[in-house]
Design a protein that fits this description.
By secondary structure, this protein is an alpha/beta fold. The chain has 2 domains: about 180 residues, P-loop containing nucleotide triphosphate hydrolases (Rossmann fold); about 70 residues, no CATH class. Helices cover about 30% and strands about 25% of the residues. The chain has 9 helices and 14 strands. The chain is globular, with a radius of gyration of 19 Å. The two termini are about 30 Å apart. One of its GO terms (molecular function) is ATP binding. This is Monosaccharide ABC transporter ATP-binding protein (CUT2 family).
Length: about 270
């Protein structure tokens, strides 16, 4: 495990009008590790991810990537750094095949013509490097894929562009047992290849199965960042629901009514 974070957030604040959603949030993502970002609905997980990915601009705080302070003002800035997000809706087009989806908006061309052979080769190599064996044909329409296969294509699309940090938003939420196992294996392989992986999940079994570290948000504050091996399921549930578990978490004197947070703003 690396000693230096690949991505480090410190003192992140974010408000929407009078409502402060993130309060002095810190987060460290290490290469070769899976960091599980957890929290109840309305804790601020999605807002934090949107700040990292350039959809929202932070009000205060610093973002450090690969040891240098950076500014992320747009999704393009994040992509240029090597930060990719796989959202829960996957953003795939059912009427396009796997190759077309993986290169959507980033098509390779040879002159004015699409370079189909190169795109197909790169897509195949990416899936092979991730040890994906559940896809029969790269020219299969996404509409014909199972939920697990769709998730696999979305993840492969994210790592195709030499990404270094991949953020996965509830990747197993709509999957069955067998498909969940396949996706979790893929998540672990991403980390084993040296990427920094952030896994957002409500499923504690998934979190404990694949994560190296757990970062627990509570009402817009980072309650704890801990090694997965150092905590129990019960402690994590207490951090999610109350912001504190024994010696872990927010100070007892911290008020719990940090803000009158409207869930719709940042779920």
């Amino acid at each position: 495990m690396a000693a230096t974070p690949l991505l480090e957030l410190r003192g992140i604040d974010k408000s929407f009008g009078p409502v402060q959603v993130l309060h002095d949030v810190g987060l460290s993502v290490y290469p070769g590790e899976v960091t599980a970002l957890i929290g109840d609905n309305g804790a601020g997980k999605s807002t934090l991810v949107k700040c990292v990915s350039g959809i929202y601009t932070i009000d205060a705080g610093t973002v450090t990537f690969d040891g240098r302070q950076v500014s992320v003002h747009s999704p393009r800035d994040a992509a240029d750094l090597g930060i990719e997000v796989v959202y829960q809706d996957l953003a795939l087009c059912d009427n396009l095949d796997i190759v077309q989806n993986m290169f959507l908006g980033r098509e390779r061309k040879r002159g004015i013509v699409l370079d189909e052979p190169t795109m197909e080769q790169m897509a195949g190599e990416t899936l092979a490097n991730l040890s994906v064996r559940t896809v029969k044909s790269l020219r299969q329409l996404v509409a014909t894929l199972s939920g697990g296969q769709r998730q696999t294509v979305a993840i492969a699309k994210a790592v195709l562009w030499n990404s270094r940090v991949v953020i996965l938003d509830e990747p197993t939420a709509a999957l069955g047992v067998a498909q969940t196992a396949q996706v979790l294996e893929l998540v672990r392989r991403l980390a084993d290849k040296g990427l920094g992986v952030v896994l957002i999940s409500h499923n504690m079994n998934d979190v404990f199965a694949v994560s190296d570290r757990i970062a627990a948000l509570y009402l817009g504050r980072m309650a704890a960042e801990v090694k997965t091996s150092d905590v129990t399921h019960a402690q994590i549930v207490e951090l999610i629901t109350g912001g504190r578990s024994g010696h872990l978490g927010l100070p007892p004197e911290n008020p719990t009514d940090f803000a009158d947070i409207t869930p719709g703003v940042h779920q």
